[in-house]
Amino acid sequence: MELVLLRHFKTPGNLRRCYIGATDESLFQGPDFAQYVEQKRKDLPESEIIVASPMKRCKETANYLYPGKDVILEDSFRECNFGFFEGKNYEELKENPMYQKWLDSGGTIPFPGGEAHEVFQARCVDGFERMTNQFIESGVQRVAYVVHGGTIMAILQELDEEDRGFYHWQIGNGEGYTLQIDEAEWRLGIRRFKEIRKL
User: Fold this and answer.
1) pTM recorded for the entire structure
2) Under CATH, to which class is 2-198 assigned?
3) Which among 81, 93, 141, 175 is placed 20 to 30 Å from 114, CA to CA?
């Protein structure tokens, strides 16, 4: 079975390098957007099923990349809520003691007023395993998940046999990974990937 984990295209907040989690932004469409989308479509493998986070940036990306296909929305794939940091960038936060404390922790403590990493990761992984199991039982061979960078990082950190950490899996907008899994192993509860390849 082949799975694609794809991060949404850029939003205005991404261009400003802001923490955009719970903020429900639409995509930024610059002058080369149509050409960019067309190239991305050519680079992607075919998928039978398209799943997306319900946030605008993921729904819109899914619709551009897979025009005419139904998109299943999965709430557990929402991006992390960055709390007080939401909508702000480094320059706006660098003098804030709460932000410095969070940076000093290596990003391991909960976002002030936001979501703890462990809670975020648990919901992302639960949604991914639950939906992938459903597709295996339905005989689906190719699924594309159009989600957030943090969602992808959380899933791969949890299921990576080499334990390479959350930030190892960081990718840019419109980038992603293809994963190969053994359906028989997954039915037995063995959660691992036969192959991981960056798109």
Assistant:
1) 0.94
2) alpha beta
3) 175
